[in-house]
Design goal:
Blueprint (H helix, E strand, L loop, with lengths): L3 H4 L1 H12 L10 H21 L11 H19 L12 H19 L1 H7 L1 H4 L2 H22 L1 H11 L19 H10 L7 H22 L2 H13 L5 H17 L2 H18 L4 H15 L9 H9 L3 H30 L12 H24 L6 H13 L9 H35 L1 H13 L3 H16 L4 H11 L1 H6 L4 H13 L9 H10 L3 H11 L2 H11 L9 H23 L1 E2 L3 E2 L5 H16 L10 H25 L5
Antiparallel strand pairs: 1-2
Length: about 675
C-alpha cells in the first residue's frame, strides 16, 4: 500500500513520535526521567484506588487529602518538566530540584493536616505554621503556572490572585470585600473554592482518566489510524488534503484539548499535503488552524473542558457532549463547504490515487481503535460510568496494542509514553491550580455577583446587546489563555450575567466556550493561525485573516444556539430536526458567500460579485436563523425570505458556470 501520510518525511516523523512516544523537545534525561515516571505511576495508582474504591493497603482518603496529594505531586513534577525560561524537557537545574523538593514538602504538610483543615475551617482561621506553608504553596503555584501556561496567563492569574488585597479601593462595579495578604493566601490554599475547587475536583474525578486515554491512544498509533481513515474517505476528492485535515485535526483536537499541540502534530502532515495539491501557504495554514480549533469543541472528548463544564453545571458529561454535537457539526460543515468552494473555484484536485491508503486495509489494521471507542462510548452513554470508562478503555487499548507489532510497546516506548502522560497531566495541573486562584478571588470578594448585576444593567432589556458584550468579553479574555483556563474564568465572570438575562444555562456555557476559542484564529493574537503559519511559511497576519474567512461560522453559530436551544438538542425532536436542517443549509450559503463560489452551482465574480455575495450571506443568515422572539419570524417565513435572497446569486453563479469554456 502506498500511503501519502507515511511517504513524506514529515509524516514519518509524526509516525515515529507515535511509536516512540515522545518528541525531542519532550525528552527528559537523567534522574529526572525516573522521577517523572515514578511520580506519574504513583499518582495514577492513587487515582485508580480513589475512583474505584479499591482501598489498597486499607487506604481511604477524604476528598481534600486526595486532591492535595494528587495536585501537589504533579505540581512538583512540573518543575522538573518545564524549564525556568520556557520549554519542556532537558536537564533540570539545581533550582528546579529545590522547587520540586519544596513542593513535595509543602504538599506533605497539606495532606497530613487535611482533616484538621476541614474540621477547623483553616480557610478563615489557619494556625501560624499553616499560614506560612500556604504562602510557600501559593508562590509555587504561581511559578508553575508561569512555566506551564506562559507569561500572559501568569500575569492574569497573579493580578486576580492578589485582587482581594486591594478589592476595596477599586472603583465600582469592580470593588469587593477586601482582605489582608495573610487572609487571602490561606483562603486560596485551604478553601474548596479556590485552587482546590471545582477545576481540580473535576481533574481528580473525571478529567485525568480521559487525558490518560487520549495520550495512550495517540502514542499507540490511534492518530495515524484516524489520519489514514480520513485520507481513504475524502483524500481523493477536490481539496481532499484539506478535507483530511478537517477530519484528522478535529479528532486529534477532541482528544488532546490543545489547539497548539494539535496544529503542530497533525499540521506536519496536512500542511505539506495541502501545499502539494495546490493550496496557497496561507490557506493551508488557515485550514489547519480552524480544524484544530474546532477539535477542542467536538465530542466525544472535547479535551478537559467539557468535564469541568459538567462539574460547574452539576450535569452528566453525556448531556454536555450531546449538546455540543450540533454546534460542532455546524462549525465543521461550514469549514468543509468553505474548503470545497475554495477548491472548486481554483480547479484543485484531490490527492493522486496511488498516494491514498486503501480504506479496506486501513480498517483491517485499525479496527481495534474503533472497538475501543465503542467500549468507551457504551460505558459513558449506556452505563453512565464516566469516571471509570476511560480507564477500562485505556486498559483494553494497551492489551490490544501488544498484538500489533508496528506499535507494540517495549520498555523504552512504555517509558516514553509514561513520561508523555506525566507531562500532559503536570501541565494541566499547574494551569488548573493557577486558574483556581481566579475563581477563589471572585468568591472571596463577592465580585461575581456584582459583575452580573452591572452587566445586566448596562445591557438594559436587550438580549442581543448582552450577548454582544459577552462575546467581546470572552474574546478579549480568550487571547493568550489556554482553552480550559479561559472557560473557567468566563464561567465565573460572564456566564451568570448571561443566565440572568434569561438565556438557557447550557447554551450560555457553550457560547462562552466558543467565543473564548475565537481568539485562536483571530488577529492580533491568533495563536493557532500563527503556529500553523510558521509551519507553512506564510505571513502570520494574512493567515489569521484567511482563518477568519474559512472559519467564519464560529463567530455566528454561538448566537444561533444560545438564542434557540433547539440547536443544542434542548427542544422536541421535530424542532431539533427543523432547526438543524435549516442551519446546515444556511451555513453552506454563508460559507459560499465568504469564498465567492457556490459549490455545485458556480462562481460569484466580476463587478456584481461583491453585492451578490452580500445578498447570499444575509440570505444564509435568515435561512439558518433560529426561531427566536428576538426577531419575530418563524422557521417557515425566515426560510422563505432567505431562500428568495439566495435565488438571484445562485442563478447568476449557475449562468457564469455555464458560460465557462470547457476544459481542454
Amino acid at each position: 500500500m502506498t500511503d501519502q501520510s507515511t511517504n513524506s518525511p514529515d509524516a514519518k516523523g509524526i509516525e515515529q513520535v507515535a511509536i516512540d512516544g515522545a518528541t525531542p523537545s519532550e525528552r527528559i534525561a537523567g534522574p529526572a526521567r525516573w522521577v517523572v515516571v515514578s511520580g506519574t505511576l504513583l499518582s495514577l495508582v492513587l487515582v485508580i484506588n480513589q475512583l474505584f474504591n479499591i482501598q489498597l493497603f486499607g487506604i481511604v482518603l477524604i476528598e481534600g487529602r486526595y486532591l492535595y496529594i494528587l495536585g501537589g505531586m504533579f505540581l512538583a513534577l512540573s518543575f522538573l518538566i518545564f524549564q525556568m525560561r520556557g520549554g519542556k524537557g532537558g536537564v533540570p537545574s539545581l533550582l528546579d530540584w529545590a522547587l520540586f523538593a519544596l513542593a513535595l514538602g509543602s504538599t506533605s504538610y497539606l495532606a497530613a493536616t487535611a482533616q484538621s483543615n476541614l474540621s477547623q475551617g483553616w480557610e478563615y482561621a489557619a494556625p501560624q505554621m499553616a499560614q506560612y506553608i500556604s504562602v510557600v504553596f501559593f508562590l509555587l503555584v504561581l511559578e508553575a503556572c508561569r512555566r506551564a501556561g506562559g507569561l500572559v496567563l501568569f500575569l492574569i492569574v497573579t493580578f486576580f490572585a492578589f485582587y482581594p488585597t486591594f478589592a476595596g479601593i477599586v472603583p465600582d462595579p469592580f470593588s469587593g470585600f477586601q482582605s489582608t495578604f495573610m487572609q487571602t493566601v490561606p483562603y486560596h490554599i485551604y478553601s474548596a473554592e479556590s485552587s482546590f475547587g471545582i477545576p481540580m475536583k473535576a481533574f481528580g474525578g473525571v478529567v485525568i482518566g480521559f487525558i490518560l486515554f487520549g495520550a495512550v491512544l495517540q502514542r499507540t498509533g490511534g492518530g495515524q489510524f484516524f489520519n489514514d481513515l480520513a485520507l481513504g474517505l475524502v483524500g481523493g476528492y477536490r481539496g481532499g488534503a484539506a478535507k483530511v485535515s478537517i477530519f484528522a485535526s478535529g479528532f486529534m483536537g477532541s482528544m488532546s484539548g490543545s489547539v497548539i499541540s494539535n496544529v503542530l502534530t497533525t499540521g506536519a502532515v496536512s500542511i505539506p499535503a495541502m501545499r502539494k495539491t495546490g493550496f496557497s501557504a496561507k490557506t493551508a495554514a488557515a485550514t489547519e488552524a480552524c480544524a484544530s480549533t474546532g477539535g477542542v469543541l467536538m465530542p466525544p472528548i472535547m479535551g478537559a473542558t467539557a468535564f469541568i463544564m459538567a462539574s460547574f453545571l452539576s450535569r452528566p458529561y453525556v448531556e454536555i457532549a450531546l449538546a455540543a454535537a450540533i454546534p460542532s457539526i455546524l462549525f465543521y460543515w461550514g469549514l468543509f463547504t468553505g474548503i470545497d468552494a475554495y477548491a472548486a473555484k481554483r480547479g484543485l484536485k484531490g490527492l493522486p490515487k496511488p498516494d491514498l491508503p486503501r480504506l479496506k486495509e486501513v480498517m483491517i489494521e485499525g479496527w481495534p481503535y474503533i472497538f475501543v471507542f465503542a467500549l468507551l462510548l457504551y460505558m459513558m452513554i449506556g452505563l453512565r460510568q464516566e469516571s471509570s470508562a476511560p480507564f477500562y478503555a485505556t486498559a483494553l487499548l494497551l492489551v490490544v496494542n501488544q498484538f500489533r507489532a508496528r506499535f507494540r510497546l517495549n520498555m523504552a516506548r512504555l517509558g516514553n509514553m509514561i513520561v508523555g502522560v506525566g507531562m500532559g497531566l503536570a501541565e494541566l495541573t499547574a494551569i488548573l491550580l493557577g486558574v483556581g486562584l481566579i475563581v477563589g478571588s471572585f468568591s472571596a470578594t463577592g465580585l461575581a455577583g456584582t459583575l452580573v448585576n452591572e452587566l445586566v444593567f448596562m445591557a438594559g432589556d436587550s438580549t442581543l446587546v448582552l450577548l454582544l458584550m459577552g462575546a467581546l468579553t470572552a474574546f478579549i479574555f480568550g487571547m493568550g489563555m489556554t482553552v480550559t483556563a479561559c472557560y473557567i474564568f468566563l464561567a465565573v465572570v460572564l456566564a451568570p450575567a448571561l443566565e440572568a438575562g434569561g438565556l438557557n444555562q447550557l447554551a450560555v456555557h457553550l457560547f462562552i466556550l466558543y467565543w473564548g476559542m475565537v481568539s485562536y484564529i483571530t488577529p492580533p493574537v491568533a495563536l493557532g493561525a500563527f503556529a500553523a503559519s510558521t509551519m507553512a511559511g506564510s505571513n502570520p497576519i494574512a493567515t489569521g485573516f484567511e482563518a477568519m474567512r474559512l472559519g467564519g461560522v464560529i463567530y455566528i453559530a454561538p448566537f444561533f444556539f444560545v438564542l434557540n436551544p433547539a440547536l443544542i438538542g434542548q427542544a422536541p425532536a421535530w424542532e431539533v430536526v427543523v432547526a438543524l436542517s435549516s442551519a446546515l443549509i444556511g451555513v453552506a450559503m454563508i460559507s459560499s458567500a465568504l469564498q465567492g463560489y457556490i459549490s455545485l452551482v458556480g462562481p460569484l465574480s466580476g463587478a456584481a460579485g461583491l453585492p451578490l455575495r452580500m445578498l447570499l450571506f444575509f440570505g444564509g443568515l435568515l435561512i439558518a436563523k433560529p426561531h427566536t422572539e428576538l426577531i419575530n419570524l418563524g422557521y417557515g417565513a425566515s426560510f422563505l425570505i432567505g431562500a428568495a435572497l439566495c435565488a438571484l446569486p445562485m442563478l447568476v453563479a449557475w449562468r457564469a458556470r455555464q458560460a465557462e469554456p470547457e476544459p481542454a
